[in-house]
Specification:
Blueprint (H helix, E strand, L loop, with lengths): L6 H17 L5 E9 L2 E11 L2 E2 L3 E4 L3 E3 L4 E4 L3 E10 L7 E5 L8 E6 L5 E6 L5 E3 L6 H17 L2 H13 L3 H23 L7 H23 L5 H4 L1 H23 L6 H31 L7 H26 L1
Parallel strand pairs: 1-9
Antiparallel strand pairs: 1-2, 2-3, 2-7, 4-8, 5-7, 6-7, 8-11, 9-10
Helix pairs in contact: 1-3, 1-9, 2-7, 2-8, 3-5, 3-9, 4-7, 5-7, 5-9
């Protein structure tokens, strides 16, 4: 494909952006509300931390409620988790939930409320809109919109998944094989995302994230091998390798969906919408890459040796992620 002669330049910019973003990553806060008995709720509020520093956030409700237990705090390494129980003197559905302090941050907060009757509401609060009214139930269109948006956002901010797709695009030089390769990756991670979300299959999230980083490292080495004129399974059948690693990446997507949760009465619809959102986000990314490269081709000529340099850059970043994640997983 002609665009690949300029693809390395874009990859260098992409990796710089990823490194900068990862270094200044601010993860969303999570407020989980579960009705354990009629009118009684367990509350879990997870606030992101960077080292010993954490965001100063507080979850409040607009109606009359009383605490049943004192708040318990415990750090988990990358977050501070607060948990307590309350009784809703006024129905919780209809109250406004506010993440106080969110206005002064650059992050978001995910709120999930699950009631005993099976109704589940998921909302996303932002610095501009830090509060929302908890509805009695979500309509099917609201479920579709919420989970579609979550899927798109997860893939577009999932830099490890995007870097893997980027590496595949550098290996495959024919657009027809590229379509087959990306399709295989999509089908594979859709399978494991569905199985994991329905609790048919599962893997521990921490090791999975480490092995996902390792998969990027392995594909980066294949780029360098191809540039040296060597062949391998990945070079000959990239779609097969993409499918195999896609199964693993699906468990990573399932971890993100687990944070959001699935509505009891609309599990198939929510799962389909999230999966569709992931694919839309992936297609947006690929289309953006192809468009930007086409623009770069008009003004810049990049030497072929840049491909090898980018392969080493991808491999270095992936190796760092692998060591960091596996260390955190087993220590």
């Amino acid at each position: 494909m002609k665009f690949l002669s300029h693809f390395p330049f874009l990859c260098l910019l992409l990796m710089a952006a990823m490194a900068s973003t990862a270094a200044h990553e601010v993860r969303p806060a999570l407020l989980d509300i579960r009705e354990e008995a009629p009118g009684e709720f367990s509350i879990l509020f997870k606030t992101p931390m960077q080292g010993d520093a954490r965001l100063s956030l507080r979850a409040t409700f607009s109606g009359r409620n009383e605490a049943l237990t004192p708040m318990v705090e415990r750090p988990t390494g990358d977050a501070m988790v607060q948990s307590w129980q309350l009784r809703a003197i006024e129905p919780l559905a209809g109250q406004r939930v506010l993440i106080d302090g969110l206005q002064s941050t650059m992050t978001e907060a995910l709120v999930r409320a699950e009631f005993q009757n099976g109704n589940v509401w998921t909302g996303r609060l932002t610095p501009a809109v830090p509060s929302a009214t908890i509805p009695e139930a979500q309509s099917k269109w609201e479920v579709i919109a919420a989970y579609l948006r979550s899927g798109v956002e997860h893939i577009l901010f999932g830099f490890d998944h995007l870097l893997f797709v980027t590496a595949l695009m550098m290996i495959v030089r024919d657009w027809r094989i590229l379509v087959k390769t990306i399709t295989a990756f999509t089908v594979a991670h859709s399978i494991t995302l569905t199985l994991a979300s329905l609790k048919i299959a599962s893997l521990p999230s921490a090791p999975v994230e480490g092995v996902i980083a390792l998969s990027i490292l392995l594909v980066a080495t294949e780029i360098a091998r191809k540039e040296r004129g060597q062949t391998s399974l990945t070079v000959r059948w990239p779609w097969a390798v993409a499918f195999a690693f896609g199964l693993l990446h699906g468990f990573g997507f399932a971890g993100a969906l687990a944070d959001v949760g699935l509505p009891g009465g609309d599990i198939p619809l929510a799962l389909f919408s999230f999966n569709l959102g992931v694919e839309i986000g992936q297609l947006i990314y690929i289309a953006a890459v192809l468009f930007i490269v086409a623009m770069i081709r008009r003004v810049v000529t990049v030497p072929r040796q840049a491909v090898t340099a980018v392969a080493y850059g991808i491999g270095t970043m992936a190796a760092f992620w692998t060591i960091e994640r596996l260390t955190n997983a087993f220590l």
